[in-house]
Amino acid sequence: MLFRSDSVLARLNAIKGVKHVEEFATKAGIIKTANAIEGVVVKGIGKDFNWDYFNRHMMQGHSIVIPDTGKTNDILISKLTAERLQLKLNDEVITYFIQQPPRARRFHICGIYETGLEEFDGKYIFCDLSHIRQLNDWTADQTGGYEIAVTDFNSLEKTGDAIYESIPPEMNSRTIKELYPQIFDWLGLQDVNRSEEHTSELQSQ
């Protein structure tokens, strides 16, 4: 958990090669339907989320519209998760969150995406960051971390080093290659050149 810092955000946005910075937080959850159960990572996103990538991979529905006040119950799930749980667009789904005491939320499926990366699609659903804050008893200025997009994927390591050097000692940063090495191993075997936008995560130590 981090406290949102305007000075840190300013430093990050000033780094050459940084394209976009956005807040996020994740929480383990379990989706239970009448016929199946699935463990997921619920990723909370805010109004600053860049939807360009997901809009290109949206199979049905639309992205989450984050309100200025309050919160939305809309969620985005993958086609893979939808098929496993026999869910469809506009279904209502209950997600149980792993904490003491356990809590549950009823969500509405507003969109279904497919990136083609099973490691990612089989894990993540997306919701309003306000839900994660409420579940964790956080204030409005607390967040899980920052996700950073770069302008040039070929300069990922160089930009990643510059990010690491600019952040306070209580924070840590990892590139997408460090977060998901198995995906890049697979892509290497397939001889695919991947140039994605979301490339780095920043969180507390």
Distance between the termini: 9 Å
Low-pLDDT stretches are 192-197
Number of helix segments? 8
Share of β-strand residues: 35-45%
Shape label: globular
* DSSP E strands, number: 12
In N-to-C order, the SSE pattern is EHEEHEEHEEHEHEEHEHHE
Written overview of the protein:
The protein is an alpha+beta fold and 205 residues long. It has 8 helices and 12 strands. The protein has helices spanning 6-14, 52-56, 79-85, 118-121, 129-135, 156-166, 176-179, 181-189; strands spanning 2-3, 18-32, 37-45, 58-61, 74-78, 92-97, 103-113, 124-128, 142-143, 145-150, 171-175, 198-204. Strands 2, 3, 4, 5, 6, 7, 8, 10, 11 and 12 form a 10-stranded mixed sheet that branches. A two-stranded antiparallel ribbon has the order 1-9. A hairpin with a 5-residue loop joins strand 6 (92-97) and strand 7 (103-113). The longest helix has 11 residues, at 156-166. The protein is globular.
Give short descriptive properties of this protein.
205 residues; alpha+beta; ten-stranded mixed β-sheet; two-stranded antiparallel sheet; 27% helix; 38% strand; globular
Concise summary:
This protein is of the alpha+beta class and 205 residues long. 27% of the residues lie in helices and 38% in strands. Strands 2, 3, 4, 5, 6, 7, 8, 10, 11 and 12 form a ten-stranded mixed sheet that branches. Strands 1-9 form a two-stranded antiparallel sheet.
